[in-house]
Description:
B: two-stranded antiparallel sheet, C: Amidase signature (AS) enzymes, eleven-stranded mixed sheet, 13 strands
Amino acid sequence: MEYDVVIGLEVHLEINTRTKMFSDAPYYFGADPNTCVSETDLALPGTLPCLNREAVRKALSLCLALDMDIDTVLRFDRKNYYYTDLPKGYQITQYFHPLGRNGHLKICINGKEKTIGIESIHLEEDTAKQIHNSRETLIDYNRCGLPLLEIVSEPVICSSEEAVLYLEKLKQIFEYLGISKARMEEGELRCDVNISLKEAVSPDLGNKVEVKNLNSLANTRTAIDHEIVRQKELLDRGEEILKETRRFDEKTRTTISMRKKEEIADYRYFREPNIFPIRISDDMMEDVRKSLPELPDVRYRRYTKEYRLTDQAARSILADKDLSDYYDKAARESTDPKILCNLLLSELGGLLAKADIRIEECSVKPEDLAELADILSRKELSSKQAKEVLSEMFSSSESPEIVINRKGFRPIKDSDMLLAVINEVLSENSQSVEDYKKGKDRALNHLTGQVMKKTKGQADPEITAVLLTNELAKR
Amino acid sequence: MEKEEIKKLAHDILLDLSDKEAEDIAAEFEKLGKMLRVFEEIDTEGLRALVYPFDNETEYLREDVPERPLSKDEVLANAGKITENCVSVPRVLK
Amino acid sequence: MRIGNAASPFEAYEKLKKANDKLNCIVTAIEPHEEGIPIALKDNVCTRSILTTASCRILDNYIPVYDATIIGRLKAKGFVPVAKTSMDELAMGGTNMTALTGPCHNPYDLERISGGSSGGSAVAVASGLVPVAIGTDTGDSIRKPASYCGVVGVKPSYGKISRYGIIPYASSLDHVGCFTTNVRDAAYMLEVLSGRDDKDMTSSFEEVPSYSRIINSDISGRKLLIFKNVLDEIEDHDVLRAFNDTVTVLRMKGAVIEEVSFDETLMKAVLPVYYLIANGEATANHANLTGIPFGERAQGKDFEEVMINSRSRGFSSSIKQRFVIGSYALYKENQGHYYRKAQKIRRLVVEEVMNRLRDADALIAPTVPGIAPLMKESSTDELDDNLISHSHLIIANFAGLPSLSLPMGFSHGLPLGFSITANPFMEDIMFDIAKAVEEYTGLEGQTKEDF
């Protein structure tokens, strides 16, 4: 039987504010246990929540970036359940009135654009971290109360590939907005997948299975693929898919049932009475709008249209925001953004990879790379020379000018000097001269090569070409 | 309401009830039920819930400036069991 | 006793300890180490390094690591806490009979209740042990014991006094307030306690006037509404006489008196509405009491069992009852008939009263329909009597209105209270009217000091 796969993703994102969502305690990843905790985080009796402005600003910037309808009155609700990682016994969230609704982002799948709808984005808070040993569970409250955004996609994703592309695109937007590095390995981004299969010919939706807490893109992909196969097999055997919550087991690389849907608690949501509705002022909204950075899609258009980069080159640069920022800085100083792009991606990229450092740690200043690109563009250096110059720049942090001078890579433009060399070469290579006269173009290359050899590559290629042709004509 | 039903409700908020407690709650539910008949006489169609004493909105938001958190000792001061600077509970079985 | 002529904190501390044998009004005596004005705090006010139990077994060993906001404000004005006072468990009660430390006694008759939930604070002031005590009021928990114990008990508008560091009952109804022996002290205390607190997002930005300086018993032209539904219910002749005599005097002083009858069905709904909202919020507010990061922890083989055992042992049966019913009202399928319905009726009640109060200065009534009942005749179940003459006090919590009770006379040697409820943030007018009443009754500064 043929089935349509219907996937919706719920992403939980920790945003990088200095303090927590509802308390003024700081947070540092990797801090000693229980050293980033305020009385509010610990839910000590009598404490009250107090909402972080920066968290709201960052959430707003994401809503704007995803083109969402924004509810300008913030309202919060209590989600009631008991667990050791939740000291209040409820999580403060936005169940009834999410901050943003009806957003969308575009992914590119097999060369085609697809729009993924975003149902809602809301603010909430993280729980404590639990460390399990054989006999006990240890609770570290540091993470408790960290600002989280929950981003819920519409169920319009059809494959694990689309899901991963969607997540990658989201991560890229988070990074460009500067709201989170979204490192899955550090738990800054967690993903729950809702997945169901429906018969291609039937309008009825299948029962939904939720796979919780996926902590890497690879696991997300594997979990979805596994779940599709599992559900397909069940359906083909005529069995029913149970509404349930499952988790991904890294060892077996399969999903395992956690609880059936009927057992899932009623969270008894109700409005958080300790937080009045908060009106987002026009000033604040305007301020967030104004400080919104250029987003990847816009940059992509600029790169491909204005700078005429290839699709692949543009994507390669955009994949890393720091690289893209570097490129933008350099491109502003350069007259040849294409050559600049090549230098950055292949030459500098190679050096960075070899030295295992990131672009922001690179000693080559963007303006220096731009200058080198321009020199290359003016054909004052051969590519081989440029590569050598860049390598020196990379280790010495010097400008291209200084390196070129030291290396003596100044091109010889002096006609008399060049004529002397050319005539010497022509005399020594009479056979090639004759070949040229007979119309063999290859001979010209050979002669040019000889001139280059004699000048150690310093002969200006354009001037040499002109002079050589003229001299040959005389013979 | 049945005793078992009440015990189930109590379990949802992590309370164990004795039979006597469950019976008393059943009786209280009855009392409340009678009192709530007055609700049926009150038309609330189309009304918004009044969550707070006033229908006001605020604009205040806290600036994102860290204050000194509790010391580790303060965090753990009232905990029943402590291991490796964490609050310890018997193993949470998955 | 007045704030201005109070005994030293140490004397107060000594007297409290001695008197407590008879009154049982305190949980913890705090030995003072500095001079100043002695003050008693209800045991739900968090005090750094000082046991704070909220009269609940699960918090029997709980020592806060931070101070409530009001502690800082009090200390800045020279107040020295000398005791944490008895209260109903988690402030959920009106008799003070459910206190973990046992019932608190009315100083006018030890066989009678103090009223609650802030009973210990009312008693400490009424018996002249301290000039002022802090209480909290979710439905009537300051004003009712104030009436029974013959002191001034006031709760200001919602948001006026920070709730940060006050162990809650129901967040949308909780108010902090105080007990004093006279109206001017109450006005002064409001100056000390009130003001914006950034740690409480419901804290008000309204300016705090110098109430004690601007207080003025001139009430000519003030429009006072007599809460007719309340009076219609009262049978006690002493109460009626004391109230009517007071009203007559107020009229003579130039007040315009009007009777107002509110919709009886709505008034009858006040108690169940309160019951559902307060218990609904409370069940969540106290979901933090699990014995894990703090509180008395019971044994168990896994975390859930630890929580269940700690909670089941840590709360009295009547609290469990409230939590179960409060939680029931919040289930998705129940909210429409219970919690949310109650919130909607809350709106109707508030509108019903505000439609009249908005064009007047205050709503007045006897605080409660009689003297403090005998302990043996008191029920701790709020649902036992749905009397408007009791539940009318809750309306000030529904609407966040400033409200106070002050002594208006005696019946059989026990105090009677007069209730004044004003428009939001019009505490000054409430105090002016109270001052006029006080001038007439001559009960300013009265205490019952034999302990």
